[in-house]
Amino acid sequence: MKINIILDDITKLKTDAIVNAANRQLAGGGGVDGAIHKAGGSAILEECRQIGYCETGKAVVTTAGNLLSRYLIHTVGPIWHEHPALMADLLLSLSYRNSLLLADHLDCKSLAFPNISTGVYGFPKDRAAELVKEVVQHFEPEKLEILTFCCFDQENYDIYNELFKTF
Ligand code: APR
What is residue 147's DSSP assignment? Predict the structure, then answer.
């Protein structure tokens, strides 16, 4: 897979699928979740209501409403302080892996991720990025060709650029 690292608003991207950093109730919220629902429109929230719930580490799919993508993949990352560190690591890795699996299963060629759990959920940014790299290194896609890590803050952008230099 080709890896792109950008500093941008994920709601502006045109990829086959975009990942949302959701909560378990799929109820919308602040951060990237709020931005996605605001830009995508109310149809997304209605689909989320019908799905109802998503366990931490899992991923579900809706259409992308008014966004420029075909699909919106909602995954729930761990709240850092709610778990022992190794459990939080596992859950975050699962969030990324399950999102990748779902996108691949949906025949997506391109997928964009925000930096899941590194905002309100408080996961350390450098630790999260290292886990992400490991997940991507072990993932064997059938359809996915382009993976974009859409950072929204300079710190995450710098961490990803440094880490993926050697990818
Ligand atoms: N585009 C890309 N990234 C964004 C955007 C955006 N428009 N807005 C925020 N971000 C980035 C933040 O800078 C952070 O690095 O998304 C990353 C994840 O931060 P949060 O959105 O706070 O997500 P998270 O830490 O996973 O917490 C999830 O936040 O709003 C709630 O409903 C959401 O309860 C859930 C919780």
Answer: E
